[in-house]
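Weekly sync, protein design subgroup
Attendees: M.S., D.O., the rotation student, P.L. (late)

Item 1: inverse folding check
M.S. brought a backbone from last month's batch and wanted to see whether the design step gives back something sensible before we order anything. D.O. pointed out we never logged the input encoding, so this time it goes straight into the notes. Structure tokens as presented (349 positions):
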């Protein structure tokens, strides 16, 4: 599907332009997971629906369209990245002991740890079956039938497999960094580039491959995704200090209780003088009740300027993401991708 060369500034509301795509994804997600089914299916539906932001599926759809492909043929691939994402969240909540997800009980809290682990496994293992939907019906050179050409699907499978491994590497590294305020920003950024960035890269690069993008276009969208992933997670780390738990959909105490060295906290540790650093270490070392620790950390983030610095760095990454889109033909799709970068550092959940 070829799009007209439309200047980004000519699209008045890019996110509104994405609404039909989001509606298509939601309809197909609901269709694939009917309410009446066996237990594992029901738990999977609970994890998937009501849907979250569907950001990663949207990225895949718009990346495919940005290189001249996309449309209904890539919907299964777009949903498959959501399954990988949600499966990883189900496992995260088990690992972290979190009882809330998207403003309601997590899968583990509602159904128990065993069913949560199995559900996360099923969602992630099911990715490749969904990703290859229709590939056997497509010709070797064109994607005129049910799905994209098999060679493109194989390329996307490789990207998704790599993303799954990178996600696990990031999770393991997060555990290694837990409680270590001296780990440094470089190691932290490596960790989030793996744990959070993996699925952003999979969505954008996978979409570019499925849409028939050139190597240069694939590289541009991969670079966009890498900066977007950093911006998204940097901003996500700010939410406990800028949003209440109802808005964020998850307890603001989670990072504190788990002693996770998040981006603004590590900036604070680097910027603080010795007395403030000692208070920060005490707050995150279990010396205070979690609620008191959160208040102390918030105060230190404000007084050291770390909160402002973290916002600025997140915004800078979003701007770098948008600059990568300049290597692509301007279109409605690139306008949507640029708007997603802006949204990643302005959202409240």
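Designed sequence read out in the meeting:
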């Amino acid at each position: 599907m070829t799009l007209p060369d439309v200047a980004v500034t000519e699209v008045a509301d890019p996110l509104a332009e994405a609404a039909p795509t989001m509606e298509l994804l939601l309809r197909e997600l609901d269709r694939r997971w009917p309410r009446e089914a066996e237990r594992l299916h029901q738990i999977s539906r609970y994890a998937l629906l009501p849907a979250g932001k569907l950001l990663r599926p949207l990225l895949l759809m718009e990346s495919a369209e940005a290189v001249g492909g996309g449309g209904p043929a890539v919907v299964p691939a777009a949903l498959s990245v959501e399954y990988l994402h949600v499966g990883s969240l189900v496992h995260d909540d088990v690992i972290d002991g979190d009882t809330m997800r998207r403003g309601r009980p997590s899968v583990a809290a509602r159904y128990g740890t065993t069913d949560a682990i199995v559900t996360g496994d099923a969602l992630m293992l099911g990715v490749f079956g969904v990703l290859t939907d229709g590939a056997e019906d497509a010709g070797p050179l064109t994607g005129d039938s049910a799905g994209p050409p098999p060679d493109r699907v194989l390329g996307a499978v490789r990207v998704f497999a790599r993303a799954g491994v990178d996600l696990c590497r990031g999770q393991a590294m997060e555990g290694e960094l837990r409680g270590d305020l001296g780990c440094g920003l470089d190691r932290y950024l490596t960790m989030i580039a793996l744990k959070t960035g993996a699925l952003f890269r999979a969505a954008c690069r996978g979409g570019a491959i499925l849409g028939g993008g050139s190597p240069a276009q694939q590289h541009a969208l991969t670079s966009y995704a890498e900066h977007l992933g950093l911006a998204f997670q940097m901003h996500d780390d700010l939410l406990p200090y800028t949003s209440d738990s109802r808005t964020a959909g998850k307890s603001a105490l989670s990072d504190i209780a788990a002693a996770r060295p998040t981006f603004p906290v590590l900036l604070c540790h680097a910027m603080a003088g010795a007395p403030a650093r000692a208070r920060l270490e005490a707050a995150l070392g279990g010396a205070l009740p979690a609620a008191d620790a959160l208040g102390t950390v918030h105060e230190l983030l404000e007084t050291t300027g770390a909160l402002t610095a973290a916002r600025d760095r997140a915004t800078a990454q979003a701007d770098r993401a948008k600059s990568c889109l300049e290597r692509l033909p301007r279109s409605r799709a690139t306008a949507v991708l640029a708007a997603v970068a802006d949204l990643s550092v302005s959202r409240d959940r």
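Discussion: The chain has 19 helices and two strands. The beta strands are 100-101, 104-105.
Action: P.L. to compare against the previous round before Friday.
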